[in-house]
Design a protein that fits this description.
By secondary structure, the protein is an alpha/beta fold. The chain has 15 helices and seven strands. The protein has two domains: about 25-190 and about 260-325, Vaccinia Virus protein VP39 (Rossmann fold); about 190-250, no CATH class. Strand 1, helix 4 and strand 2 form a beta-alpha-beta unit.
Amino acid sequence: MTVSLPSSFKLFPVSEYFLDSTSSVVRSKIKTRVQRFWQTSPCDSSFTNEAPGTLAFFRSLDEHRYKVHWQLQSAVGFARTARLRVLEIGCGCGSEAERFARAGADYTAIDLTNAAVSMTRRRFQLSNLQGSYVQGDAENLPFPDGSFDLVYSHGVLHHTPDTPRTIREVYRVLSPGGRAVVMLYYRDSFNYHVNLGIVRRLRAHLLTMELGIKLARRIFGETEEDLRRHAELIRQDPDAYLDMENILNRNTDGPDNPLSQVFSKTSAQQMFWQFENVNTEVMFWNPNWLPGIGKRLPRSTENWLASHWGWHLWIYAQKRDLESATAKATFAARMFRRQRGSGFAAAA
């Protein structure tokens, strides 16, 4: 079978994929699919052969997670969360949850799936840690206004249909002066423009042949099961598979992942418009994006690549303090009265 590239194929797609204009009915259906997908495969759970729910299972997951995402712990700053009320949106298998709890935070987890909530609760039981666990929707957080001092989410909110709504919810449940630390997939990255936009789309040709599947297995390091699932999806509808939105979905968190979205620094700033002190940082470089040489690069080179073209866009933001917001409003009103008095407002 031959896969023909659709006429819409572009080497460097520049559109951002986030569902800001879809109907509420469509979003609800997508969210149901997202929930089903992650219910069967909680984040990181496939990276170990240990029995699920055992201490060895969790330790194995953590070893893999912090080896791959070696910047993650310093990016979060667990040591600074002692005595803070922390909400984690999307707890997965509880890797960060345990670190928040051990740092002395008053920890709460919320996840769309019962699987992740149960897994995190089990981890805490094994480690004699205290926390709260809620199955719920990030787009409608079941907490009162001002309930938390820190809201943290790593690689989760780009999987929900209405990401801007989740950011508004984060702002609402934060206390005045509280902080948000959120990681989203980065549009202006090597992974999006080159690996997904070019390599993965061209790889579809390989996956239509048995020899191609074996070759792709060696080059990309994916499991044969996943590669064969990709091949099946290509055979079903080549044009649909090669659509950039589907390439993004199917090549980020598994071939059956129903939704992933990407964000630029500009779109992130727009979503966090209510916050102050909004800062962004780009991290994470996967050596597999450069087959053959990626794992031979020195750490300094990998750091440079990650900071310029990495896949993870971290957003650090602070909810406006009430006193600060009042002071700014008072200052603005005072300046406006002065301008009116001097005739400047009229002249403008």
